[in-house]
C-alpha cells in the first residue's frame, strides 16, 4: 500500500471537499506532491492536519490562526500526540467562553430574543424609551455584551 493518496482518497477519508483541500493547500495549511501526470498526491499524515483544521474551525479559529498553530509543528517529522496536545491546550478558555455565550443565549431565548424587541420602542421592561437604538443596529445586548441603557 502506497503512502501517497489521491485528492479524492483524502477527501473521502477526511470528509472534506476536494475544493476545500485545494484551498487549504493554496493557503499553505497542507501540502502535496505532484505525480508525473501532474495530479496531486498527499502523504497519509495530511489526514491528521486536516482533522486538526476541521476541529479548529469548529472551535472558531480562523484559517490565519490555524495556519499559525500549524506552523508551530515540527517540520522534520510527523507530529506526535504531544505535539497536537500542545497546540490545543490553549483552546480551553476559548471553548469555555463559547459555552458561556451559548448558555447566555439559551437563557435569553424566551425573554429578549424570542420577543424580538431589542431595539424597538414597544418594550417597556427591557428597552424603555427605545434607548437600545442609540447603541446601534441588531441585538446589541448580545453582540456587544454590555448592560442595558
What does this entry look like structurally?
With 149 residues, the protein is mainly alpha-helical. The chain is built from seven helices and three strands; from the N terminus they run βααββααααα. It has helices at 7-14, 18-26, 46-59, 63-71, 81-88, 91-115, 140-143, and strands spanning 4-6, 33-34, 40-43. It has a three-stranded antiparallel beta sheet with strand order 1-3-2. A hairpin with a 5-residue loop joins strand 2 (33-34) and strand 3 (40-43).
Percentage of β-strand residues: 5-15%
Radius of gyration: 23 Å
Total domain units:
2
> Helicity level, as a percent range?
40-55%
The largest sheet, given as strand count, sense and whether it forms a barrel, is: 3 strands, antiparallel
Q: Strand order, biggest sheet?
A: 1-3-2
First-last Cα distance = 66 Å
How many helices? The count is 7
Please provide the count of β strands.
3
Examine the coordinates and then state which fold CATH places here, giving the name of the CATH topology of the largest domain.
Multidrug-efflux Transporter Regulator, Chain: A, Domain 2
Query: What's the CATH architecture of the largest domain?
Result: Orthogonal Bundle
Overall mean pLDDT score? Answer: 81
The succession of helices and strands, N to C, reads EHHEEHHHHH
**Can you tell me the overall shape?**
elongated
* The top level CATH class name of the largest domain: Mainly Alpha
Please render the helix and strand layout as text.
Layout: E1 4-6, H1 7-14, H2 18-26, E2 33-34, E3 40-43, H3 46-59, H4 63-71, H5 81-88, H6 91-115, H7 140-143
Antiparallel strand pairs: 1-3, 2-3
